[in-house]
Amino acid sequence: MNISQLSYSKHCILVHNNFINYRPIKNCIEILLSNSEILQHFIFKYENKKHQGEKSYAEQNSGNWWKYAEASIPSSTCILSLILYSDATTTDTLEKSSLHPIYISLRNISTWRRNKEDAKQLLGYFPILFAKNEKEKTSPEFKKLVCETFHKSLKFLLDPLFENENGIDYKINNKIIWFFPKISTIIGDWPEACT
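The structure corresponding to this sequence follows.
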């Protein structure tokens, strides 16, 4: 196990001592892109797949959204299609402690390959807010605070990828590839994500 890849940082999201423990998103992506097994099945461009003369949708890069996204960027660039997913996880046998991890993977990785453990990276842990009682938990103010915490956390994690509107460069097999990141999928049990 490479311990150097397990370093985390901490950032205050709100003034209520709610911290997000995270790894820089660019580093998580670099780790995925440095895996030679993943790169053997890495998808760089849109494919117009057909089966018996009919449009066939297999991987994400055969969908219309990829086609249109690719058409909106320079032809020498590639889409970096992000998948974010999270699910609150109980961390003790008494079910009193929990964490809310968020993971990242790439749609550029073929589905069968993406389902393997090394095709995902732990990006961080969302802060979990606790109410004093049921009344506070159901109050509009608390719900707003939970929502604000979630959105600020997500923005903080993703901002480094989107701070430059001209895309981002990654080194793959000793070649610099110019990518434009796009969030293609968010999977989770986040009611806050719907607001």
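The chain is about 25% helix and 30% strand.
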